[in-house]
Amino acid sequence: MNKGSLIHISRRKEISWWRAWLVRLAAIALALILCGIITFFATGLNPISFYAAMIDGSFGTSRRIWMLLQNMAILLCISVALAPAFRMRFWNLGGDGQALMGALGAAASMILLGDKVPNWLLILIMTVAAVLFGAVWAFIPAFFKAKWNTNETLFTLMMNYVAVQLVAFFVIIWEVPKGAGKIGIINQNTNAGWFPQVGGSKYLLNVIIAVLITVIMYVYMKYTKHGYEVAVVGESEPTARYAGINVKNVVVRTMVLSGALCGVAGLLLVGGTDHTLTTTLIDGRGFTGVMVAWLAKFNPIYMALTGFLIVFLQRGSAEITTMFTLNQSYGDIITGIILFFVIGCEFFLNYQIHFRKSHKEVA
Fold it and tell me: What is the pLDDT of residue 359?
């Protein structure tokens, strides 16, 4: 008697996009049901009021809605920036550092040139500086990867820590007042370098810029020659070389683009909303952006949906811990469970599980 394996896993044929999103929505629904059950038995709270608080935390007031959109815009900008590098299988974990360097470039321009040039010219200089700083910070690991095949994961990760220390150094130089340990609001009296408000909101311009970057990157990755080369390099470097693609140039070019867009995210924070510079300004969005990009299969349009889910969960979990005086960790646990279901469903979108019945073979 031969016993075969009772479980067999095979790769699933590609399914339609709408079926895939139905599976994802079903996973979210199951996660919410499980979280409701856990909440009821662990805290005695009504799950409905629990989820109502999460919704209220994001949509309860117009300010909360704008904060949700602002957080989405920054996260989306960084996620879209990371997408081409990951599509190329260059594991860029340096989004935090690249965005922080962009913020440093923008802040330096505001502080050093705030009272010396017209505001429109200052904003232009800030933009160039932020893009340049972010691009250079991404160029360094890309160059070493292309030249000596270094480990890009460790390289980009360590560059984050260098960026944090650089920002900490300049914060001490520019701190106001001396000894305060922080810069404070830059050009608060003159508003030099502050982005103009659009539609009466200081967040709308950031949202518009993030949407434009998303659409442009979608077109770039799907319909341009450079986007095609990125996809080919990601599928197989030997195939790319056989097709006449200069892999080293593609690696450097793509990473420079990725860093430049991360720099734009730093610019939006300094010039558009926060008007200051701190070592925690990016707040880990470079790492969160990796998850957003991966869940969206590196499709910039879908990243708007996955980015919304992440930001909604973050703001909702913060609201429930405040409203129900729960430990902050409880909100993180709920967020983690939901994300576990969302990420786990990707396995079932890519693979099938077959159950086999054991049978006897006559010798």
Answer: 53
Exposure b/e, 217-256, CB count within 10 A at least 16 = b: bbebbeeeeebebbbbbbeebeebeeeebebeebbbbbbb
pLDDT at 292: 94
Q: Report mean pLDDT in 10-residue bins for the chain, 363 residues.
A: 65 80 88 90 86 90 94 97 95 97 98 94 98 98 96 96 97 82 89 92 94 97 96 94 95 97 98 95 95 91 93 89 83 87 86 68 44
- pLDDT at position 17: 76
The pTM of the full predicted model, rounded to 2 decimals, is 0.91
